[in-house]
Amino acid sequence: MEDSAIKTLRMMLLIRAFETALAKRRDHGFQLLSTGEEAVAVGLCSALDEKDQLLTGGRSIGPALARGVDPNRLLAELLGKATGTNRGKGGRGHLADLESGFFGAHAVVGGNISIAAGVALARKLEGKGGMVAILFGDGACGAGGLHETLNIAAIWKLPLLFVCNNNQLSVSAARADVLAPKKLSDIGTGFGLPSRTIDGMDVETVAQAANEAAQTIRQGGGPVFLEFLSLRFAAHSTTARETRGPDELAEIKTHCPIRRQMARLREAGVIDAAVEEALEKQAQARVAEAFAFADASPYPALTEVLTDVG
Amino acid sequence: MSDNSIPIVKRMFFREAIAKAVREEMTANPRVFIMGQDVGAFGGSYREFDGLFAEFGAERVRDTPVAEAATIGIGVGAAAAGYRPLVSITYMDFMMLGFDALINYGAKSRYKTGGQLTSPVVVKTTAGALGQGVAHSQCIESWLMSVPGLKVVAPSTPADAYGLMKTALRAEGPVVYIDHKRLFPIPGDVPMEETAIPFGQAVVHRAGLDVTITSHSFMVRVAMEAAKKLEEAGISSEVIDLRSLAPLDMETVAASVGRTGFLVTLEEGQTTCGVGVEVAAQLYERIGARPWARVGALRAPVSSNPVLEPACLPDAARVVQAVHRLLGR
């Protein structure tokens, strides 16, 4: 329990430090951060093993790190460097690292959901086990791709975990203003999937729900739908206008999933202030290493513009 | 011919030629499977998968709901994960529903992942007008030709349907294979020996001296009809069936126009940003200016109305007229 708890905390701290440092840079255009939503990515990935694949929407940095993608190559990719996971050619929104079980992101909202079902179908046809998780935002719940895919996944009993990270906002639109279902997990219920709405700000709750869902899927029970309620601490992107006022944002940040997990582990006597500080410093050092690697890496040769096209 | 001799060719319809190609590829490669509406026991809307459901079963011949976006997406995803799905989209117009998966993901997957994966999916669809109205009649192949990473083929004979489908099911990246409704009732000789036709090879259907007419799919027959009429008027036409639109075989076109000196491009779709525009532009880049006329549908939707549909579409008379005007005789 102690090791995995520390590991979980370490990963959330890495994501936070990575994204915080990235937000300070201006040489990457913009990024979609998941600060505040670390528990969803880390809790979900605790349920996936090496035969599994994770696909995501465009908000993919945290999930990629949680899945075990090398921070050096991930950052290099975001900065357009040849040493990146996609040789610098995918960039934000299209990160992929198959060897880490991160099949990849697709930056069109809802667009990766049917792709993930295809990967799940391949797993099922192979018959060697392995499942697929597709992580998408509440914004994708209004898109047709989700509903079409849920229907087919249910009929074909695909080994597919639908994970809605409901951070309550699609760019500026509040979830309640643009999505009719009372709970977003009701969308899964409508297609007969085991579906739950869960606190996405508590990493242990997320992990438990994800592991239970994975077990159902691995036993051949077909797809499962999980909605995690989370809070986005930053604007839609690093260059998008913030739509919430300072008071609201300050209140939102009191729900920090990292602080919450630290408090729990302190109470349980697993960590103390010194360990916390050490873990934070280690995360920052790891991020500094990633920046050193990415900054020292070259941009792709210009001939790369025409390689791997067709 | 002795009783035990093997025929070199067999006369068959498009649907039979397609089923032959798909059957052979499914037999050779267990990773090839079919998915789409009405492809199972029904055998495909045009019976182009007849017998395959009985032979390969529901796992490999998968009926889907009416959900083109997800169907193409699942096909692309399964392809990216190592399979070779043939996704049947009944009418080409419906492909628009799946463009994100096909174009934003499938066609770009190899590039955007730095070569980590490719999406060898074949989207098989049917283009062209046959009384089905504005949303079931279109020829939008030129839209697809502009997408880097996407291959597009459109045969005009059962033999080419067979050979191009075989290549499609072995290709590296996504392929759009286009049939035409008006071609289905027309039989042709198909080689009995396994033969794949490489992409990027046009074929000269009729040799001629005075003008080159390029076309593809059903319009090749219209071009041939026009060539016959032009012959009576003393004009000798060379008719080229492009077959493969992406990649295009410009060598064959340039060699022909280099000899005839005149180009007429013919297509059933729109001429604006059409296949003909691309052929003419690439020809110009290769051999410089040659007089050119383009023939295609009028700039209007294709109605199911029995008099407005033919009024919109190119026919042999329009091709003949275009050639006379171009040649000044």
Spans of at least 5 consecutive residues with low confidence of chain A: none
**End-to-end Cα distance of chain A:** 48 Å
Please provide the ordered H/E string of secondary-structure elements of chain A.
Answer: HHEHHEHEHEEEHHEHEHHH
Task: Quote the CATH topology of the largest domain in chain B.
Answer: Rossmann fold
Write a brief caption for the model.
The complex is a heterodimer of chains A (310) and B (329). Chain A has 310 residues and is α/β, with parallel strands linked by helices.
Can you put this structure into words, describing what you see?
The complex is a heterodimer of chains A (310) and B (329). Chain A has 310 residues and is an alpha/beta fold. Chain A has one domain: Thiamin diphosphate (ThDP)-binding fold, Pyr/PP domains (Rossmann fold). Chain A has a 6-stranded parallel β-sheet with strand order 2-1-3-4-8-7, with helices on both faces. Chain A has a two-stranded antiparallel ribbon with strand order 5-6. Chain A starts with a helix and ends in a 14-residue tail after the last helix. Chain B is α/β, with parallel strands linked by helices. Chain B folds into 2 domains: 179 residues, Thiamin diphosphate (ThDP)-binding fold, Pyr/PP domains (Rossmann fold, 3-Layer(aba) Sandwich); 125 residues, Rossmann fold. Chain B is built from 12 helices and 14 strands. In chain B, strands 3-2-4-5-7-6-12 form a 7-stranded mixed β-sheet, with helices on both faces. Chain B has a 5-stranded mixed β-sheet with strand order 9-11-10-13-14, with helices on both faces. A two-stranded antiparallel sheet of chain B has the order 1-8. Chain B is globular and about 60 Å long. Chain B starts with 8 loop residues before the first strand and ends with a helix. The mean pLDDT of chain B is 97. The interface between A and B is large, with 43 and 39 residues.
